From TrEMBL:
Transmembrane segments: none annotated. Pfam families: MucB_RseB, MucB_RseB_C. Keywords: Periplasm, Signal. This is Sigma E regulatory protein, MucB/RseB. CDD domains: RseB. Belongs to the RseB family.
Length: 328
């Protein structure tokens, strides 16, 4: 039997070769970058409502979305239509997630979570450093003319992306995350109305969601100054930068975990460091596959569980997770 250390070494060597052999790509076209700028701005410029489909790993899920802009900012309601019911209400960055089956409500701030079709930061960073961005062709999507924009990674540290952008409004109609030539995750509108009238009642909770027997849990976050955590990522992969350091309670328990968030301008990766009690069983270390483009890597260091999770290849997630060190 081949030892685990040999397998790890082989993976490391293979990963190194991939990075070295990354293709030399030209600079992105100004036209393609203008399309991405228009796409990033569109959710804050237009009202829209419709149904979109999520597909990954043979799993299909439909959601209904209503999005309105007014003087107070953005108002949004997303309701998952398949499986266990879930409803998210958002006013700007303040979110409430309703779980009707358990009668629970979780409130939190939208820090990095991206909801289709609003998946680019505004303003978006210099994606050209990490992706070759090009215009592909025009294509009709749910009776809207779209411009296809392809983002080809400049190395093996990140996935490729493809966007179908409405030529009139810039709203994203369809998106795909690619592993080489294979689609590993996809969102697409099945029905969409842009700039129609949206009644305020469509953005409010249903009457049964306001009953007193629902339990509310506030997921708190405390942003801290640079270098205030006991941890740092010693070797950031090329193209990734640290966004913020925080302390968060991610469960109903009043226990805060350290959270370091990273991004390459499109993909986001989070590192959670949680102190384990002495009587806590040691968690399993290694890779864990979530659905679609999300990968998870867990390791234990000095009585702390370090979980790295993000929409990046497994090698990138491991590289980040193994770079976490204690500094105090």
């Amino acid at each position: 039997m081949i030892s685990r250390s040999i397998i790890s070494l082989l993976c490391f060597i293979a990963f190194g070769i991939q990075v070295v052999l990354a293709q030399e790509l030209p600079r992105s076209s100004e036209g393609a970058l203008e399309w991405l700028k228009k796409m990033a701005e569109a959710p804050r410029r237009h009202n829209y409502s419709g149904v979109f489909i999520y597909y990954a790993d043979n799993h299909i899920e439909a959601s209904r979305i209503v999005h309105k802009n007014d003087q107070a900012g953005e108002h949004e309601r997303i309701e998952v239509l398949d499986g266990s019911p879930r409803i998210v209400l958002r006013i700007n960055d303040e979110m409430k997630c309703y779980l009707p089956e358990s009668k629970k409500i979780y409130t939190e701030k939208r820090w990095f979570r991206k909801f289709f079709p609003d998946i680019l930061p505004q303003p978006f960073g210099n994606l050209d450093e990490n992706y070759y961005i090009k215009e592909v062709k025009r294509e009709r999507i749910i009776d809207h003319e779209s411009q296809i924009i392809s983002l080809i990674p400049r190395d093996s540290l990140r996935h490729g992306h493809q966007f179908w952008i409405d030529t009139q409004t810039g709203l994203l109609l369809k998106s795909a995350i690619m592993d080489g030539g294979q689609i590993i995750e996809q969102f697409a509108f099945a029905q969409l109305e842009i700039d129609g009238e949206i009644q305020s009642d469509l953005l409010k909770p249903n009457s049964f969601m306001t009953q007193e027997d629902w339990k509310v849990t506030n997921l708190l976050t405390s942003v801290i100054g640079e270098g205030k955590l006991e941890w740092k990522i010693n070797n950031l992969p090329f193209g990734f930068r640290k966004l913020v350091e925080m302390k968060r309670n991610l469960t109903e328990k009043p226990v805060f975990v350290d959270h370091i968030a990273l991004s390459d301008g499109l993909a986001t990766v989070s590192v959670f460091i949680e102190s384990m009690a002495e009587d806590t069983p040691t968690p399993a270390s290694g890779f864990f596959k979530d659905r679609g483009a999300i990968n998870i890597y867990v390791r234990v260091l000095e009585g702390n569980k370090i979980t790295t999770i993000g929409e990046a290849p497994m090698e990138t997630i491991k590289l980040i997770g193994d770079s976490v060190i204690k500094i105090n």
